[in-house]
Design a protein that fits this description.
Layout: H1 2-30, H2 32-37, E1 50-51, E2 64-66, E3 72-74, E4 84-90, H3 97-110, E5 120-126, H4 133-144, H5 150-155, E6 156-159, H6 163-173, E7 175-176, E8 178-180, E9 185-187, E10 191-195, E11 201-206, H7 212-223, H8 230-238, E12 239-242, E13 247-250, H9 252-277
Length: 279
């Protein structure tokens, strides 16, 4: 009995060891990247790259930049006419991402029902201190060629500046980027920002494509009921920004409130009509 018990214990240990060996063999052969590199650190070029959202905080706007015509512009000048500002960061020698973001924005603007120059302006700022009027002008020409309206040429400004102004503006916006000396490129996120007329950061919209509805609602939201029609107020009342899906979605509670109000109005109108007709 003792011998049988010892043999049974050895068998159990052997079986357990075999199972562990098989499990490790399975992981290392079929999931090598997960097994060995799960704890691998973030590449140095991506450290400190991303967005630190600063909703409701003031943008540092007392900064000087230059337009694609080489004219010096103080960033405060964009906030004189009570309009929202769509702000994007890029660099004009970017091989791909900046063009995708800017092209996605221009497509959304082409389908937008709001009028540029009336409700909002667009400002694109280069994060590369080596950009100049020539590179800014070439970038602008490439992305505004879809528009026949001269208002886009007037109210979509492409800026470049020195490192101090760029750093101050991006830092206040929470936009973090890093220059990769090996590739001579900037690592940065794909997004646009909506700035309110009082210079506060109102919304971040992420990606390389933007729904015209999201763009419209974010502009209206930033205007804070200034220069907004009654229809737009109702539209803004019915939609809320969902940070998880990163888009505006119908706010059921407010829609129900409107539905309830309309139901009451219809009922009272019906009662009034019936009393008038059948006194």
């Amino acid at each position: 009995m003792i011998i049988q018990s010892n043999l049974l214990d050895k068998f159990k240990k052997t079986k357990h060891s075999f199972f562990c060996f098989f499990f490790i063999f399975f992981l290392t052969n079929f999931f090598p990247s997960t097994f060995f590199y799960a704890a691998e650190s973030v590449p140095p070029t991506l450290i400190e790259v991303g967005v630190e959202e600063k909703l409701g905080e003031f943008l540092d706007t007392n900064l000087n930049f230059y337009s694609s015509q080489g004219e010096e512009i103080n960033f405060n000048s964009f906030f004189k006419d009570n309009k929202s500002i769509i702000l994007s960061f890029s660099y004009y020698s970017c091989p791909m991402l900046c063009h995708l973001v800017t092209d996605g924005l221009s497509k959304a603007l082409s389908d937008l029902t709001l009028q540029i120059g009336t409700n909002f302006e667009v400002v694109s700022v280069s994060i590369d201190p080596d950009d100049n009027a020539e590179t800014a002008s070439a970038f602008k020409t490439k992305h505004l060629k879809r528009f026949n309206d001269n208002d886009f040429d007037r109210y979509w400004t492409f800026l470049y500046g020195d490192e101090i102004s760029i750093s101050s503006l991006t830092k206040s916006a929470g936009f973090k980027y890093r220059y990769n000396e090996m590739t001579s490129e900037f690592a940065h996120s794909a997004l646009i920002m909506i700035i309110s007329p009082d210079r506060k950061i109102s919304r971040y919209l992420y990606g390389i494509e933007f729904r015209p509805l999201d763009l419209k609602l974010s502009i209206l939201e930033a205007l804070n009921n200034n220069l907004i029609s009654t229809v737009d107020r109702v539209l803004l009342f019915c939609y809320n920004y969902d940070p998880l899906s990163r888009k505006y979605v119908i706010f059921a509670e407010n829609v129900m409130k409107i539905g309830g109000f309309l139901t009451i109005v219809i009922l009272f109108s019906l009662i009034y009509f019936l009393r008038k007709r059948y006194p």
